[in-house]
Amino acid sequence: MKEFLIYGAGLGLRRESMDELLQQLPEQIGFMEVAPENWIGLGGKFCKQLHQFTEQYDFMVHGLSLNIGGPAPLDEAFVYQVKDFMHQHHILGYSEHLSFCADDGHMYDLMPIPFTEEAVHYVAERIKRVQDIIEQKLIIENVSYYAAPGQQLSEIDFLNAVLEEANCDLLLDINNIYVNSVNHEYDAAEFLSSLPGHRIAYAHIAGHYNEADDLIVDTHGAEVIDKVWQLLDLAYTSFGVFPTLLERDFNIPPASDLLVEVDRILDIQSQHQVESLAYA
């Protein structure tokens, strides 16, 4: 667990759920997360409501458009906007995807970076520049991908090399490990055990869609399945308990249903706390 983020379970904040959540702020939520692209420059009712949440909870921003692996020049103006937004709302950290999403224009999708040594150096330099601007470590998420063009390194070797060379932190997406393990036929537990646990800042857990027996699409549009919960449990066993956020981006149920899954995160965390005390 990193000092900048509290221990516990989190929930992504979306505009369509704000009114419901404000009626009774959930006590079991320890932190929240927003996509800065959806909030930067926003005023009026939504800005006031966001302040109501940021006064009550720790917050992270999880970006969608940094394009950290893309061929276009790094959008430093946007990074400065994110930095200002973080200061305005007292947000603790900034996470982004280890992917690219733009060239001359945005593709509105997260594309895989070629797993090559050259890409490691290229991406690490861009991450370090972002870190210079925001004056703290960027938190990079392991992403789901469906093809690996020009692959020279394994996914785990590429991810670990970027984390080490950039000296950044990791947003551990549990569901992405499971999705990739099915789509690319590797052992999810072995992948997890090969990660640098000391770099884990926090985690995401989410649902997905089974397109076929050997193809899973990372949608964040369904409940978390048991195998992904089991992988989260294994991650806590391997690295200790870290803050974990439930992602749900569409097919969004009532907040009460989402909080059932938040409670499950807390239950798994509590089991590991008890075990830690038992062996202390």
In short:
The chain is 42% helix and 18% strand.
What does it look like?
With about 280 residues, the protein is α/β, with parallel strands linked by helices. Strand 7, helix 5 and strand 8 form a beta-alpha-beta unit. It is built from 9 helices and 12 strands. The chain has a single domain, classed as TIM Barrel, CATH 3.20.20.150. An 8-stranded parallel β-barrel has the order 1-2-3-4-7-8-9-12. Strands 5-6 form a two-stranded antiparallel sheet. The chain has a two-stranded antiparallel sheet with strand order 10-11.
- Mean pLDDT rating: 90
Unreliably modeled segments:
none
| Highest-level CATH class | Alpha Beta
Number of helices: 9
**Silhouette:** globular
Radius of gyration: 18 Å
What do we call the CATH topology? TIM Barrel
Provide key terms for this protein.
12 strands; 280 residues; two-stranded antiparallel ribbon; 9 helices; 42% helix; globular; alpha/beta; eight-stranded parallel β-barrel; TIM Barrel
List the helices and strands and how they pair.
Blueprint (H helix, E strand, L loop, with lengths): L8 E4 L2 H9 L7 E4 L9 H11 L3 E5 L13 H13 L4 E5 L2 E3 L3 E6 L5 H18 L4 E3 L13 H12 L2 E5 H10 L4 H6 L6 E6 L3 E4 L2 E3 L8 H14 L4 E3 L8 H24 L2
Parallel strand pairs: 1-2, 1-12, 2-3, 3-4, 4-7, 7-8, 8-9, 9-12
Antiparallel strand pairs: 5-6, 10-11
Helix pairs in contact: 4-5, 8-9
